[in-house]
Amino acid sequence: MVVNSTSNDSVNVVDYVVFRAEYKTAVSCICGLLLTVNIFAIYIMQQTSRIPPLNKFLASALLLFHVLSNSFIIIENITASVNVYSSTDCLIFVVIFTIMNAPTVALMSIERLWALSSIRLYFKYHESKIIKLIPIVVWSIYGLLVIVYRTRVCPYTFKPMMVCKHVFQNRAVESVALWTGISMICYIKIFKIIWRTSHTGIVGWP
Known about the structure:
This protein is mainly α. Helix content is 85%, strand content 0%.
């Protein structure tokens, strides 16, 4: 009985190792495909001259965050069995760049609302460095908060790690909900503008 139990345990371990290897390979392949598509999309967008600079800037940033998060997922899969701390660091960057997508989408909806509600001011200031500085500050604050949280508030050596994880998940959900709410408000206003001007026609991009 002891021999059979040991044999079954060995088979289970081998099956688990094989499953993990196949899982990591599949995830890495999918992330690699998404990474390639996003890089190609960024290149095409940069070559397109008819897209307003601010819109191009925000859309490219959104694609870039996807590229970076997918890149760190691939690196995490490679380093997971080699160095636990390097793997954890990669996961932190995955979280950072994933969370940055939410405010970016909200900023894109604000940009669209601005373009439709005040098109003259939009084309007067949409290339201003000050305007582009606003999302850069937002992204920097978000990234810094995540890093401080994981390295100072709840570092790797913190014992009740599940408490940290629970608090972090709650804050992440609240943050995403906030930016989603901002996006929804902007799109509702955009819908009202389009609805109000649908009978007279909407001015398109020059």
